[in-house]
Design a protein that fits this description.
This protein is α+β, with helices and mostly antiparallel strands. It has a 7-stranded antiparallel beta sheet with strand order 1-7-2-3-4-6-5, sandwiched between helices.
């Protein structure tokens, strides 16, 4: 059985929650090793804020890259059909022929770093025409009178009926921008993406 996708427990755990949502999306609950859950929670939220408080600056790109490598090693040893690829910089874009776009079209998911006031991780789960489907682990209610005005645009659409796949639909044009407004990836210097494949669902050359 596939699990519902999860929301953050705190202001800081978007990274591990999104990684685990990628696992939840790709695999049935009965097939997920508890080792994976433990490792992701142990090695994410590795940064310090300006006051020297651990975890309060979220999860670093270095941790994402390390977790990606560990998941690949674990999958080889356990014969678990998960395969990950980590990208940063100019390789992170949603354009025709790009690795990320190709992965989404083949059924993979992507843990993507973008901006939502601050740096933030979301899970890309599909492409529909000129929009991307994603699950944002930061819980918001569309009818909340205190909802930030940045959501008031056709480029950001709430989805309410796909709890195992997506809760937002974002225009590709917005996502690809080099600025740092809501659901924009920002400059190439701060872009990162972790692609996750279920090898049983996707044919890979590697």
């Amino acid at each position: 059985m596939k699990n519902l996708l999860n929301y953050q427990t705190s202001e800081y755990d978007c990274g591990p929650v999104t990684l685990l949502n990628g696992i939840r999306y790709l695999f049935d609950r009965e097939d997920i090793y508890p080792d994976i859950v433990k490792f992701i929670m142990l090695y994410s939220m590795d940064t310090y804020d300006e006051n020297g408080e651990i975890c309060k600056h979220g999860t670093s790109a270095a941790a994402m890259n390390y977790i990606s490598s560990w998941l690949n090693h674990f999958s080889r040893v356990k014969n678990f059909p998960l395969y990950c690829e980590f990208y940063s910089g100019e390789k992170v874009a949603l354009t025709p022929g790009n690795q990320i776009m190709t992965a989404l079209e083949s059924g993979a998911v992507v843990v993507l770093h973008l901006f939502l006031d601050v740096g933030h991780y979301v899970l890309l789960t599909g492409i529909e025409d000129d929009r991307v489907l994603l699950f944002d682990p930061y819980y918001e209610e569309e009818d909340d009178p205190d909802l930030d005005e940045e959501y008031d645009t056709d480029e950001i659409i709430f989805i309410h009926d796909q709890p195992k796949k997506a809760n937002r639909s974002i225009s590709l044009e917005r996502l690809n921008r080099t600025t740092m407004d809501y659901y924009e990836m920002g400059g190439f210097c701060c872009r990162e993406a972790l692609i996750m494949y279920n090898r049983n669902l996707t044919k890979l050359d590697s």
